[in-house]
Design goal:
With 302 residues, this protein is an alpha/beta fold. The protein is built from nine helices and twelve strands.
């Protein structure tokens, strides 16, 4: 059985882009060349690796296993390259991070700070909903994953690095915005604007409401924090969002309500598959994130 590095890279590009033409563009080759290389790879493996149905690529079982093996191989090779670079006093390499959408409000700044001490590295940063991040985690597509609700069905390494308080918000002129003590029963008649089911914020809020036997009157379910904030500002209802996602809207268009038990206690987690050998860059970036936890603890003690 024979497969070249180039063929394996092309195959992974096919898996990640979902098409032969997309793989060809990523690898800077013509589509006929990509098709020929992928056909040759399948012949060398001795099993069909994928099929195209309605212009969409579907991996066979052999293709899924090859994708896992190829990713593991390239992770090892990338780690080796970075180790050699460190031996030579260089700080080059590629860091791949995937994060849920709410983390986009702070992870870019942390990546920027990290790049100040590693100016020559390449960053691949994916921002997706939670289901998308979990899927990438299942497929071992990145070095590290940032989320507030790690999956329970996978064996993972999981470390907390920052708090993620979730608050109830309303329009600035909402009648409850001036009330000092709001109880959950006061929200019974309010219309709620919720994040979509499956988001980390929604999961945390739903769990709290179930615990309190509270059924919110849901008017809208929206897929982005921005859409929820804008709807709240337009007086369409109240919402529960991460404090990290409020940005300039806080106190300008919206206010945090003084609801009992809120902000809910939640945390941001650094996640990777259990047993995954992290590259030197990934280890360094993880330490960079965990420094924030240490700094916060030290600040609380002082």
């Amino acid at each position: 059985m024979h497969a070249s590095f180039r063929q394996l890279r092309l195959f992974l590009a096919l898996v990640e882009t979902g098409s032969v033409s997309g793989a060809a563009r990523r690898m800077h080759v013509t589509q006929p060349t990509a098709s020929m290389q992928l056909k040759e790879l399948g012949e060398n493996i001795g099993e069909p690796l994928f099929e195209v149905i309605s212009r969409k690529v579907h991996l066979t079982y052999a293709g899924e296993q090859l994708a896992k093996s190829a990713r593991a191989m390239f992770d090892e090779w990338q780690s080796f390259e970075q180790e050699i670079a460190l031996m030579k006093g260089l700080t080059k390499g590629r860091l791949k991070v995937a994060a849920v959408s709410t983390a986009k409000y702070f992870i870019p700044q942390m990546l920027g700070d990290f790049c100040k001490t590693h100016p020559d590295i390449e960053i691949a940063f994916e921002v997706l909903n939670r289901d998308g991040v979990v899927q990438r985690l299942e497929n071992n597509q990145d070095d590290l994953y940032i989320m507030s609700m790690p999956p329970s069905h996978l064996d993972i390494d999981d470390e907390i690095f920052m708090s993620n308080p979730i608050a109830i918000i309303a329009a600035k002129n909402h009648p409850l915005s001036k009330k000092k003590n709001v109880e959950l029963k006061d929200l019974k008649q309010e219309k709620f604007i919720m994040r979509e089911r499956g988001s980390g914020t929604r999961m945390a809020v739903d769990a709290y409401f179930r615990k309190k036997h509270f059924s919110p009157n849901i008017r809208l379910e929206l897929g982005t924090n921005e859409a929820v904030r804008n709807s709240v500002a337009a007086n369409l209802g109240i919402a529960a969002l991460s404090m990290h996602s409020l940005g300039d809207s806080l106190n300008r268009d919206i206010k945090v309500l003084n609801v009992q038990d809120f902000p809910l206690s939640s945390n941001w987690h650094i996640v990777s598959l259990q047993g995954k050998k992290l590259s030197p860059l990934a280890v360094s970036f993880k330490a960079h994130l965990l420094e924030r936890l240490t700094t916060n603890v030290d600040n609380r003690k002082s």
